[in-house]
Structures are given as C-alpha cells and as structure tokens.
Write a structure and sequence with these properties.
alpha/beta, Rossmann fold, seven-stranded mixed β-sheet, 10 helices, 7 strands, binds S-adenosylmethionine
Length: 239
C-alpha cells in the first residue's frame, strides 16, 4: 500500500469529500452510469450471472447501478481505501455474492490475489491515478483476467492532445459546474475543483489515443471511445 498511502485518497476526509460532492462536479456522472448500464444490457445481457470486477470502486456506485438492472451479478470490488470500502459495504449490504478487497492497483499487479476471471471489468475515475506504464500493466492484468469475449469499460479523465484543447475543456467543465451550482442554489463554490484537479500530483491522466493504442496492442477488440465530453471519457474494448 506504500504508493497508495502517499495519495490524498488514503485520507478519510478527502475520500468522503469526494463522495459528498461528486454529483455536483462530475457534471455528467449520471449520464456515464446510464451509458454503462446500456453497454451492459446490450453486450453482456441480464440474468446471466455475469462476474463483474470494479477497480477503484469508491462507495460501490457502479456495481450498485448494475445490480439495479441485473441482480444475478456476482461482483468483486477493489479499492486502496478502507474508508471507501466501508461505504461500499454499507451501500451493497442487501446484496449477495459481493466480495470486497482492500488493495492498491500496484499491489494487484505485484501480488497474486487469486482472482478468478470476469465477464466485465469496470472502473470509474480511478485509473488516471496511475502512470502510463502502470496503466498499461493494469490493462494487461485486466486482459488476462477477462473471460473470452469479456469486456473492459473505463470511465475516466484523459489528457487532451493539445494545451489549447485542454484550456477549452477545463473552461467548459467550470461553466457546467457553475450552472449546476446555480440550478441547485448551492452556496459553496465548486468551481475551484478544476485548479485542484490540475495541481494534484495524484492525477496522471494520459491521452485517449495512448490508452486506446495500449488496449489494441494487448489484443483487445472493438476498442473505442464510447462517449466523450471534454476531458471525461468512456472507453474500452472486448477480449
Ligand atoms: C474519484 S474516486 C472514484 C470512486 C468511484 N469509482 C466513483 O466513480 O465514484 C477514485 C477511487 O480510486 C481509488 N484509488 C485511487 N488510487 C488508487 C490506487 N492506486 N489503487 C487502488 N485504488 C485507488 C480511491 O480510493 C477512490 O475510491
């Protein structure tokens, strides 16, 4: 856990601060979840007892959304944060066949956790905390832990290809946050999240093309960006 413990995610207040405000500053969060559910229904099909792995699960929101449309799922949720996993355990308390594992991605890559294979690996807003080399290793790990024809879907922030585009995407993000704040009549100012996002050493986004190429190089098929809005993307592929 050495690497993870150096990040802000190891601090309870930081983790809980994210959970409280995520729906405000991840402006398209609900849309991402709807797209994930559409992808799941379309490509995996419900009531098939699919095995799902969520990497960087936070409070378990992704698996919870998938369970709403398919309660035959068995899921493994992994996160480096004990506090996040406790929230996920609370959230998913009523469901069967759910396993929680506290491990950093770095540990996952270097320790054999004896995980069996999955039909779907999902992740949301977590893998950008790894360097490009670590991302490639994690993508390879995912590939090797997918059943034949299994899918990987990653909802994540990316590094735009030019500074000009990045400046516009970040401005767009800020405008959207302010619009949400105004609509909800919130007093707190969430607009400064963009500066914090850019300054944080924990954020190591890479370009979409580097990550799509990494997936293709590993042998993933149907690799594509399934949705994009500014720096926010949903991308992945099929084994
Ligand atoms: C922005 S939150 C996203 C949580 C959840 N997936 C969501 O969409 O709400 C990032 C999550 O990744 C976890 N995380 C960050 N770096 C990690 C690492 N190196 N290993 C394991 N988990 C990590 C954090 O603890 C946190 O729960």
């Amino acid at each position: 856990m050495a690497e993870f413990d150096k990040t802000q995610w190891s601090e309870k207040d930081f983790a809980y601060g994210y959970l409280e405000a995520a729906d405000i500053y991840i402006v398209e969060r609900r849309r991402f979840l709807e797209i994930l559910k559409s992808f799941y229904t379309h490509f995996l099909g419900v009531k098939k007892q699919n095995r799902v792995l969520d990497l960087g699960c936070g409070d378990g929101i992704l698996v919870h959304e998938l369970l709403k449309i398919d309660d035959s799922i068995s899921a493994t949720l992994i996160d480096g944060s004990e506090d996040m996993l406790n929230k996920a355990k609370e959230r998913l308390a009523g469901f069967k066949n759910i396993q929680f594992i506290r491990a950093s991605f770095q540990e996952l890559l270097h320790t054999d956790l004896h995980l069996s294979d999955f039909d779907l690996v999902v992740s949301s807003l977590a893998i950008h905390h790894l360097t490009l080399d670590e991302k490639k290793s994690l993508f390879s790990y995912i590939y090797s832990h997918l059943n034949p024809c299994g899918y990987f879907v990653n909802i994540d922030v990316i590094l735009p290809p030019t500074e000009r585009l990045e400046n516009w995407y970040l401005q767009l993000w800020k405008e959207q946050i302010i619009e949400t704040q105004t609509a909800l009549k919130l007093e707190d100012n969430y607009g400064d999240i963009i500066g914090k996002y850019k300054e944080s050493r924990d954020n190591k986004p890479d370009t979409l093309s580097d990550q799509l190429n990494a997936l293709k190089d590993l042998g993933f098929r149907d690799v594509d960006c399934f949705y994009k809005y500014g720096i926010f993307t949903i991308f992945g592929g099929k084994k």
